Amino acid sequence: MASELTEKVKKQIQKLGLPQQGSEPFEQPSTVGLLATGSHKNWSISIDDSSRPRKWFAEVRGPSFYLYFEIPSLEVVHEWFQFFDDSARRTKPRDMPGKGADQDGGACEGLEIGTFLGGKIAILRDTEFADRCFFLVGGKNSSFSSCLRITVAGTDLAALRETLRQVDEDLKD
User: Which residues, in sequence order, are bridge partners of residue 34?
Assistant: First the structure.
């Protein structure tokens, strides 16, 4: 009975394509470790690094949402910080045609920062208020025509910007 069960388990392992005990080469599973972190008020961002294959992930915790997604490179963190830092200095948002559109069809400035389940994640500046941005989580192969839109504004945007500054500094060390 036990050998019969063992054979069934072995067949299932083989069917799923999992490595079997004693098979060569056996690749160690990927490990994920903390690479950089920052927090301010009720915001925190962590950047994780996985070993096999080499990938990076961003964990964003805010007062009203949580996102964990893959980022294409560590450089995107600096671009993301610069994007928010530029927003803080601007009194009126600057339109950039071709970078997205707001609900009224006006041009929006945006930055693609990662992927989630094959869909894109981007941040967009608001064309109406300088202290408001949006996280857009689009479906696979989406142009963001159907998406989840998360608003970050006012003191939350300032806290998120400070959190990103800390992460950017941590990555420079």
Answer: 48
